[in-house]
Design a protein that fits this description.
Residues 97-239 form the SIS domain. Residues 1-74 form the HTH rpiR-type domain. It comes from Vagococcus proximus. This is MurR/RpiR family transcriptional regulator. Keywords: DNA-binding, Transcription, Transcription regulation. This protein has 239 residues and is α/β, with parallel strands linked by helices. The protein is built from ten helices and five strands; from the N terminus they run αααααβαβαβαβαβα. It has helices spanning 13-29, 34-41, 45-54, 60-78, 90-103, 114-128, 138-146, 169-178, 195-199, 223-238; strands at residues 107-111, 133-136, 158-162, 184-189, 202-205. Strand 1 (107-111), helix 6 and strand 2 form a beta-alpha-beta unit.
Length: 239
Amino acid sequence: MMLTFEHSNNLSALDRTIINYIENNYEKVMYMRVRDLANETYTSPATVLRCVKKLGFANFPDFKAQLQLKKNQKREKLNPDLPFSFQKNFEKDLAAIGKLIEKADITYCLGLGNSQLMATYASNLLTTIGYRSFSTDPVLSSYSLNNKQHSASSIPDVCLIFSASGESHSIVQLAKELKGTTIVTISISSKAFNSLATYTDYHFNYNSAVERTPHNLDLSSQLPTVYFIETLIQFFIFF
């Protein structure tokens, strides 16, 4: 969640400390008293109240009401009435990888066939909102990803891997090679259990069927993947 305010030049260092805490713990703050928030931020109740007024609210209850509204809007955005669904903890897991991408130097987006189109779409959207992202063929990326040097203190890069079936040999092989490296791997497929999910750090799955013609052409709907990508982008824009 991102707080917006008009008079940012008037914010003190203590104000920014309070705002930073709220942005990272807003669901907890909704149930706090002024004194609770002051204790958590090592400030005073008076400082908290001044900060709330600088953000444009008359009092602390009004501010908490706005946090509740933001939470309700988030729930509506992440849980619309759709003909498919993701795993039970979709919202929580999405927030977790969103934070990883925010910190990462590079986010790689990989896939084959139609999934490569989805990978390119994800990479383009991440680049548009200011994140460093690349989309390439997973076979060509295997060597460069495996040989990317990381220091012990570096923040890990992220690799989003798109595969409807989760069984493509080259995709699974790449994930296997990346397992144990500092690159955080995240797979998106139509099955909860598949070979790809075995090797990735995070796995997102949806209940849409995989459809193939007798000639093995993939005609599976990409709507769940588009939903995943655009919901992830909303995480950065609205929260």
